[in-house]
Design a protein that fits this description.
alpha+beta; rbstp2171; three-stranded antiparallel sheet; 3 strands; globular
């Protein structure tokens, strides 16, 4: 008895790949009981991660704000709002959210 190949089919064109839904990004709801809310975040695409990681002109704080503004699903944030949240809320609360974004994106905390 041979094992059945369960690999997905080979894409017929670049358009097939470009139009495919990327289920690896993943989403998660991060409870923030300290604030009485939860936030829904997703992983960053490779292109989004590059705008966070490869921006030599951004400080670590700006990188974190950009990551949060890109990955927040519900509620959404502008970069300015993300900066405000990260600056005004406790380290523990914000670190929990940022760590989940990194995890879903396949990035390590060292990106900062």
């Amino acid at each position: 008895m041979t094992a059945k190949d369960t690999s997905p089919p080979v894409a017929a064109s670049a358009d097939d790949l470009l139009g495919a839904s990327d289920s690896s990004l993943g989403e998660a709801v991060v409870p923030i009981p300290e604030l009485g809310f939860s936030i829904k975040v997703r992983g960053l695409t490779r292109g989004e991660a590059r705008t966070v990681v490869d921006s030599d002109d951004l400080t670590a704080s700006q990188r974190e704000a950009r990551a949060l503004s890109l990955a927040a699903v519900e509620p959404t944030f502008t970069e300015a709002q993300a900066t405000q949240l990260l600056d005004e809320k406790s380290f523990g609360v914000t670190e929990k959210v940022l760590t989940k974004i990194l995890e879903l994106s396949g990035l390590t905390p060292g990106f900062r």
